[in-house]
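cron nightly-structures :: item 1 of 1
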Amino acid sequence: MTYDPDQLVTLTTAATEYAANIIVVVLADAGIEARAFAGLATVFPGTFGNAPKIFSVPVQVRASDVDEARKVLSANKRDSVDIDWDTVEVGQREDDSVLTPIGHTPIAARVAMWTAILILVASIVFVAAMLATS
C-alpha cells in the first residue's frame, strides 16, 4: 500500500460532536484542515459515556498534517486556562425570586404528570378490552 499524504487519518476521538468540533476549530485556527464525523454519536449522544469507542466522534486530518496537528493540540492543552471556581466572585443576585430546590417539582407539574399517566393506563385498558371482545 502506498502512502497518500492527502488520505484522512484519525487524529483523536471525542465523546461528543460538540467536543470534536472544538478540536476542529482549534486546528483550523492553526491552519490545519480537520473534519469531525459524528455518526452514531449523534444518534446516541452521551448514552454510553466515554467507554465504548464505537460511539465516540473521530476527528480526522490529512496524513501529512498528523504531526503538526498533534503539536497544535498539545500546545492548546498546555496553554489552556483552568478556572478555579472556588476563587471566582460571582456577585449578588439581582432578583428576589424564590429558587426552586433541586428535586422539587411544582404541584401543577405533578398533577399534569399523574393525569397523563392515568390517561395512558386507561387507554391501554380500553384497547385491551376492545381486543378481548373482538
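cron nightly-structures :: done
Residues 8-79 form a domain with the Alpha-Beta Plaits fold (CATH 3.30.70.1530).
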